[in-house]
């Protein structure tokens, strides 16, 4: 069992949502539970298995703004400056010190949590902090229209990076970029996959039998925002070419909260979209993905977002490797995910925003033999076992935090 520690995690502690999924996957079912978790404000209460990842309490940050209008960012910022956020940093610091906790692990953090984390750690100089960066925090700061907020949050970020004794990042590119900015090293810790999921889906290493031609089933999962619309429009046009030139009957199987109407707007006819809605567990998502011909991973191709896609990594991609079907990454050549696939000889990458190129890549997947599909699945599983298991990541993370085994 590790020494007592607490977690500061960006996002909502709801099963299946963002950063908390990573926290849950790392600590669920282990003796290495944090004593308490501090997380960003949420309109929803903690639910499901997320509550099993902490020994004591969860502390949602509550911002009491009476005017949630255009000035909400500045209102929150001023509240943080005057410490009207609940729980107050000084109050929580006294509680943490009273529990004898001297270790902290930070996930994220986003802009609101960033400012709070800095103020909390200022009051806990004896606490050794480790930072695990899942997304580049500079991207969110650059998107703010408030120059005062950007300046203050940027200074807070530099203070936090310098305050943490160990720093880890999800990709090599992000580690190098952040490390160069502060002149201090970052370690690389790839996105973890829950050990129990690996054991369930890796047993036998046999991918499910895909739909046979002329059927082509493409699985798509996650919240699909404006950043990937160009990629999805390209996929819709590729579907038209596949149905016309190759006589295939393509369909898009979608899990998540994206309305089917949004996909129709991007060019997918209603009869090509099968919306599963929000699936309650990671296992349900993987079982659904396992029935498809392939999984499609879209990315932004917008040059204005180059910094983001060159350093970020889709959080659920490692899970898709367990499901079995080949994964087609549609991302710029310079993106972190395309580089990762090519670095590990995972060949299915389309780096052009051209429908013909996407259609050609899907055609190669349809033409794969059962043996080729099994070979792809085995390579995915070997990669997960080597670099992505949660047990290995947890040991590195707690080791980076200075945790020592109790006798």
Radius of gyration: 22 Å
Q: What is the number of strand segments?
A: 13
Supply the CATH class of the largest domain: Alpha Beta
- CATH-level-4 superfamily name of the largest domain: Glycogen Phosphorylase B
Share in β-strands: 5-15%
How confident is the prediction overall: mean pLDDT?
79
Number of domains: 2
- The SSE string, one letter per element, is EHEEHHEHEHHEHEHEHEHEHEHHEHEHHH
Question: How would the global form be characterised?
Answer: globular
Instruction: Tell me the number of helical segments per DSSP (H or I, 4 or more residues long).
Output: 17
Largest beta-sheet characterization: 7 strands, parallel
Structure classification: alpha/beta
**Share of helix, binned:** 40-55%
**Unreliable stretches, pLDDT < 50, 5 or more residues?**
13-17, 42-52, 63-84, 403-407
Going by CATH, the architecture of the largest domain would be: 3-Layer(aba) Sandwich
Q: How is this structure best described in words?
A:
This protein has 17 helices and 13 strands. It has helices spanning 18-27, 72-81, 89-98, 111-122, 137-142, 147-163, 172-182, 195-202, 229-245, 260-265, 282-290, 306-309, 317-323, 336-343, 355-366, 370-387, 390-400, and strands at residues 6-9, 36-39, 57-60, 103-107, 128-133, 166-169, 187-188, 215-221, 249-255, 273-277, 294-297, 327-330, 349-350. It has a seven-stranded parallel β-sheet, with helices on both faces. A six-stranded parallel β-sheet has the order 10-9-8-11-12-13, with helices on both faces. α3 (89-98) crosses α4. The protein is globular and about 65 Å long. Mean pLDDT is 79; it is low at 13-17, 42-52, 63-84 and 403-407.
């Amino acid at each position: 069992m590790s020494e007592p520690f607490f977690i500061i995690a960006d996002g909502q502690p709801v099963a299946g949502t963002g950063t908390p999924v990573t926290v849950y996957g790392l600590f669920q079912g282990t003796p290495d539970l944090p004593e308490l978790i501090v997380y960003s404000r949420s309109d929803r209460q903690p639910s499901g298995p997320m509550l099993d990842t902490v020994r004591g309490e969860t502390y949602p940050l509550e911002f009491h703004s009476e005017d949630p209008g255009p000035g909400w960012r500045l209102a929150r910022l001023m509240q943080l400056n005057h410490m009207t956020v609940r729980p107050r940093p000084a109050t929580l610091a006294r509680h943490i010190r009273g529990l004898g906790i001297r270790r902290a692990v930070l996930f994220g953090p986003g802009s609101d949590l960033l400012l709070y984390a800095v103020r909390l750690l200022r009051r806990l100089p004896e606490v050794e902090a480790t930072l695990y960066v899942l997304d580049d925090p500079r991207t969110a700061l650059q998107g703010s229209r408030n120059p005062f907020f950007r300046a203050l949050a940027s200074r807070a970020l530099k203070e936090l990076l310098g305050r943490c004794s160990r720093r880890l990042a999800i990709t090599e590119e992000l580690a190098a970029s952040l490390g160069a900015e502060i002149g201090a090293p970052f370690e690389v810790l790839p996105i973890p996959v829950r050990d129990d999921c690996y054991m369930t889906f890796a047993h036998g290493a046999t991918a499910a039998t895909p739909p046979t031609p002329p059927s082509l089933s493409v699985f798509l999962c996650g919240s699909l925002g404006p950043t990937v619309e160009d990629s999805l429009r390209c996929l819709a046009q590729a579907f038209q070419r596949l149905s016309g030139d190759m006589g295939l009957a393509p369909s898009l199987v979608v899990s998540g909260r994206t309305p089917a109407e949004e996909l129709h707007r991007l060019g997918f006819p209603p009869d090509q979209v099968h919306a599963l809605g929000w699936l309650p567990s990671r296992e349900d998502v993987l079982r659904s993905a396992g029935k498809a011909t392939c999984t499609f991973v879209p990315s932004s191709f917008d040059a204005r977002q180059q910094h983001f896609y060159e350093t970020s990594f889709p959080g659920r991609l490692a899970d898709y490797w367990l499901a079995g079907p080949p994964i087609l990454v549609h991302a710029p050549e310079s993106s972190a995910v395309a580089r990762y696939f090519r670095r590990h000889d995972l060949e299915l990458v389309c780096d052009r925003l051209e429908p013909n190129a996407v259609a050609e890549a899907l055609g190669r997947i349809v033409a794969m033999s059962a043996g080729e599909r099994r070979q792809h699945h085995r390579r995915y599983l070997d990669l997960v076992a080597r670099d992505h298991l949660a047990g290995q990541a947890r040991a590195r993370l707690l080791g980076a935090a200075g945790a020592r085994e109790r006798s």
